[in-house]
Amino acid sequence: ELAEQAQQYAEYTTPQGLEWLPTFQEKFAELIVRECIAQCEKNAEHIWLGSGSKLSAFNIKEHFGVE
């Protein structure tokens, strides 16, 4: 599903005739990182996992420069 989204994005945003693979790869990586953050944030309020999940989401955002 994420690869499909990235492919559609690359095909739509890359000017005709240019190689869309770099755009696809960048978007695919971004979607994977955002999905990882979402999974961490899903457990943010869990009684035992909450603090670790919040810290993990924060660290992933910081490392990859996601806002």
Report the principal-axis shape. elongated
Biggest β-sheet strands, sense, barrel = none
Number of strands: 0
Would you tell me the overall average pLDDT? Answer: 93
Note poorly predicted spans: none
Structural class by SSE content: mainly alpha
> What count of structural domains?
1
Note the total helix count: 3
Radius of gyration: 15 Å
Query: Termini distance?
Result: 23 Å
Strand residue percentage: under 5%
Helix fraction, binned, reads over 70%
Order of SSEs: HHH
Describe the structure.
The protein is an all-alpha fold. The protein has one domain. 73% of the residues lie in helices and 0% in strands. The chain has 3 helices and no strands. Helix 1 packs across helix 2 and helix 2 runs antiparallel to helix 3. The relative contact order is 0.13. The model has no long low-confidence stretch (mean pLDDT 93).
Write the layout of secondary structure elements.
Elements (H helix, E strand, L loop, with lengths): L1 H12 L7 H22 L7 H15 L3
